[in-house]
User: Fold this.
Amino acid sequence: VSWIFEPSQFIDRAKEQELFIELVELQDEARVLAIRDSSNAGKSQLLKALRWECQFRDPPVPVSLVPLDQIEHKSAHQLVLSLETALRNFDCEFARFREVEEERSGRRLGAIGRVEAGSISGGDVSGVKVEPGAVAIFNSSGEISFDLQEQLKLRAVDAFLEDLREVCKERPVVILLDAYEQCGRDLEQWIPLIFLRKHVFDPDVERLIVVIAGQRVPTAGLQKMLGDRFERIVKPLDSLSTWEREHIRQYLDLEGIEDYDDADVDLLYEKLKAGLSIGAAVAGIQQWKRQEAAA
Amino acid sequence: VRLGGFIESLDQSEDPDRALLDHVLEEADRRSPELAAAVRFCALPRRFDSEIIGVLRGTPEDTERNAALLQQLLDYPFVRVREKGGYVYHDSVRAQLLADWQHDERRGMLEDLTWRLVRHHEETHARAVQAEEDAARVSTIVQEASPARFRQIAAAVETGLSEPLMEAISQLALLSPKSALGFLHDYLESYLDRGRFSTSRALISASRDVVIALPEGDERASVLDWLEFEEGLMLVRVEQPADAEEKLASLLASDPSDDRLRYWTLGELGQAQRSQFELREAIETFEKEVALNEDRQVDPVNLPISYLRLARTYLLMDRPDLASAHVATSLAAAEESGDLAQLLSPLEVRAQCELEAGRRADGFDTTMRALDVVRTELRTRRAPRAALNRLLAHYFAGTSVELLDTLLGEGDALVAALDNPLVPLRRHVEKIDWFLQSGQLRRARALAAVAESEVETVGSDAVRAELSYRKADLARLEGSFEEAAEEFAECDAAASRVGRADLVAYARRGRALALSRQGRWGEVDDLLEGLEQTWRTHGHDGFAALARAERAGAARHRGDPAQGDRLLSEAGVGLEGAGPALRADFLRALAEHEAACGRLAAAGSALAESARLSESVGRRVPAAEARSMLAALAAAEGGWTEADAEARAAAGLLRELAESNDYEQSPEREAGDRYNADGLRALLSDDPTTLASAIGLFRAALEHAPNPWYRLNSAYAAAALGDWGAAVDALAEVLDESPEMRCSTLRRRLAEFHVARGRALLDGGWHGAAADAFADSLERLDRSDHAEARLRCLLGLGDSLRLAQDVDGSAAAYREAEAGGSARATLRLGELMAEHGDRDAAVEAFRDAARSEDTEVAAESAIRLTELLEDSPEEVDRAVELVRSTGGPEAALTLGNGLAARGRTRAAGQVYGTVQSELPEASLRLGELRRDEGDLAAARAAFERARTAPDRVIRGAAAARLGEVLRAEDDLHGAVEAFREAADLGDEDAQPWAALQLGEILLGLGSPREAEYWLQLAASRDDPLVSPRALLHLGDLMAASLRRSPAQDAYRRALTSADVEVSALAGLRLLDALPADAPASLRDEIVAAVLRSGGQTALRLADLLADRGDREAAQGLLRRVEELDDDLYAPDAALRLGELLVEAGDREEARSFYRRALESEDGTVAPDAALRLIDDTDEPAEETVERVIEFGGLSAVRMGDLLRERGDHELAKRAYRHVAGVERDPFAPDAERRLSDDTS
Assistant:
């Protein structure tokens, strides 16, 4: 398994890729691609392919792929941290963001100390309520640093968005968000209401492209939010295209499987047409291959 | 099978995904069971790699095989690479495998694997905590050197802290949502208490995501409710009360079925309401909270806290009377709990009530009582000291600017040294308050300027509003009413912005008063009218009434004095029960009105009362103003004498204020305060060696400036060190020289010091010195004030003289104590008589004492009686009846315990047998008795009986004892079962002990995993008897499974324990774990750690090394201890080093160490060193002994004792004579007694 997407192992999805390239090339007003499909349909693989597409264009298009199920804290701040880390590799400048983050890091580490329990009786008795009483000032460093921390995190998010807008004035930027259905309560609000509405859909921000993929995507909400503009700005894809016979053959060849014939391909093709997911088909083929090898 | 056929068969199965997975698993089973197991267990974590595979296999050290298994897993198409490292199964496959794990037959395995992962994540978390502390230590340097690197470290630390906990939570959720909640709650409590709110928030949110993803069910719903509560609680703590209120109120509205959850939610909701100054709502909520707990006993432990919340709210409403009643309930419950720490909050609030009710002396005494608890029982705890420091600063602001400065210095030392700009800023604001209260306007102004510039830099709106209020108040006190009115308006605006409803209201009142001084009555009336409504909305009836009263001025200036009369009369009703400050202000408004209306007599009496009330709460400015007005009123009516008296009183107050304002701290006082604050810092350290330095610092402070507070600190520090003589002298001087410090707490404490001084000498075997000390105490302790302590001193004197064979003196002391009502003295008299053959008198005395209400005395007396009389079962029965007559079955139990402690097991067993049907504890004791006699079967039966007790703690203890018996009988599985029950039921003593036993037994049974779990639990409980042993076992366990790093961690933690044996063994293990070719620096580092954990540990480790023949290492260690030149251990080290060198044949070097030991003048070492010099190195005997005798004191007396043991009576006598008769030598009486013994 490689960390880097290997395009030779990626079969087809031409339709989705074409749609995506139209977006990246800013051929029309569309800025958001919303891909919804069931588990195992190959969404994650497709997003990796789209990232590869951006990375190896000439000139490269700054791109960041974030599987939302894998970020540690499901918060806007954590998301922008992930985005910034990836976009920085494309020489995008996030000066404001980094300034706030440096301040935040400094405060955070500075605030470390063996702070005693915040109550006069101590909070160290398990299951006993604590009465903060009059000691707030002395032990409230955390409370205060929480205020500061949270404020600084909000400021960092704002600074990132501001920086991102600046970057987008110069070049297109692509953000790929995978596993949207697992993004958590906070991001479920933040992504459509703040990020998309105030930035991606802002007519002043011209070159910011977002792909959202998941078993569930916020298409209905966006439709309500955008009204007539929805058709122009958002490209919804309610299921991924499936493989043709040639793609099946390509895949079997890629796997080094020689012991197959047209009947096998036909059968697989029919199954895919009837709703078998590509992921399941691939898993089945690999398992068959493993069993054959063992036998 | 052809490919097509295979796919077809999958597709035609009922569940194709499942069918495919079954193929995978079957095929893996065929290939290798190990791989098949890995395929199944790698579904459990949300992220895995070869390390996690090692954890799950229980073979973290087998890195090669773990990596190979990972490689095999990566062949499967459902394994996904995670963006940030590691792997995870595809969702659908993971879900199916997780469902398999929930089957009953796999459940046990699931639990085992889950706990392996949880332990692993906890270890990772612990390492992150350490890394965070390390990073913090170097943060400044790194930040300067490379901001980018710093940011990288900070981000890593941040993720490192929360991620392992989130992983552990998600693992536990697979067992049950409640397991996850319990785990979250433990960590959350610690994070919230430490103010780590960002991490707390992340943990709560991650837990919610995990639990929401679980299948629906009652437990899931209940856990989600608790998570809502946790979030609400966190919002309360981070001062976001409006959000907290919304969340908690909506949780309550959903009517959760869990009473405990409702109770806790009500408590936090009330806090959120109180923070927003919604006092009426808060009171209603807290009353519901109390009622729920009282009615249904939902959580009795926390009932005192609920009452305290009511009290604090009433204090905010300026109703100290109502607050006091609730505090009293809270205090009584806390006292009953027996936990001294629980007393502190109620005492703090009671002190506030007393201070606000104008009972300043009581308030001071209560504060000192709470501080006394902290100083004697919780010395190193910062938070309670900080809270009490604020109360004391408030108190001294009204009495002494010097002591206020001292307390402010201490307060600064108590503020945790954190790089958080808001902490010093808020502290500035507090100090401005105290400067204003003490009349130090000049210093207040200067500090306000500093704070103002800092607030701009930090940019905190909340503090800006607070500061603005103080600036306005300062302007008002300086008479700049225009500036004050403007500043109050700014404060109003700033406070509104940050939602501080209380501050908004206070600012508006301040503005109204400032405007009234400018005659802007129209604006005043508008403001006060609105304000009255605001106060009423908040539920603060007192302030609403005051606003109404203050509107009288405006009415009068409108030409409507009748309305003024009406407003004042209505307001008076609303102020019933209000505190003195409010009433003083009301009376002032009333007086102004009466005077303006020409009713001078009424005005005069209102002013007099107003002045008195203001003085009672230390408000000197309004008091001075009232008295000046009173003087003017009296003068206007020709009452010259009264006018003169009032003018003088006003002048006195103004002079005090003027002196305060002009006060400048001298360099000596400043230095003194600095030393004192450093002393306090030293006191807060966990390291016992800093106590001595604290005393030194307090003394240095006293050398710079005389100050009763420094002396008080030195008294308590001396007591903590066991130097009771110094403690008595220092505290006595404080009370003699400083009237302002005289309070009942300190007087009581002085009496305790006196008793402790004598007892310490008595316990040390120095009877003569003890008798002198008790006699001295009796002379110094007041008869009426310290009656109880005097009784104890008399008993101590009697005991000392009795041991010194002074029968008459002893009897006289006991008789005096007996006359004072001490039943123990009667008992002692009986003992004395029995010793001297007066059997009848002794029997009579014991009979009297056996009827005492003091169950211990009664039991002891009954034992004596049975000793004197025939030791027959009938006699024992009579003794039982005697003590039962006043003390009930508990006294009989105590009698049994006393008999058992004296080894009279037959009689004890009889007593226990008599009462065991009434007191299950007697069965427990009976079991212990039988166990000690070796009758394990009888012990087991008794413990089984005690195990059915209704009291959970007794049940837990019985289970623990039963476990011990079963372990001794080699029924290890039975023991495990019993200890598990003990671990579940036992109190905080039984639980860790049971966990340790479980760990030890399971280790023996070959279940290292579960053993590790229990040992971890035992180690985490901070029980000094259990935790070090558990850590040592843990270290051994981990070392055996080649987990070197955690093993080392465990040994290092064990090394710091107070248990010298364990600590030394841990040091030995650490040294043994070093590879043969380890660099010397590693060994040095371990030796340094051993030395840090204490000289005694180092000495014991040296013994261990020497005992196993590793003399060189032992010598090396002893040399290091000796080099430390520490009075306590260096002499001992020198002595032992000498002995080792003699064994090694190096007599010359040994001589030099023996000499050093001798010259240390250490009473317990020097005499031995002298004998060693004589015996081992042929030093001239007489000369060497003479040298020690010259030291006098303990050295000489012990030298005499050693010589006497060797049969050298002449030299021994010379030693005793050298000390006997030396007036100042505390050991003189002991030397004299030895001389007289020798003579007789």
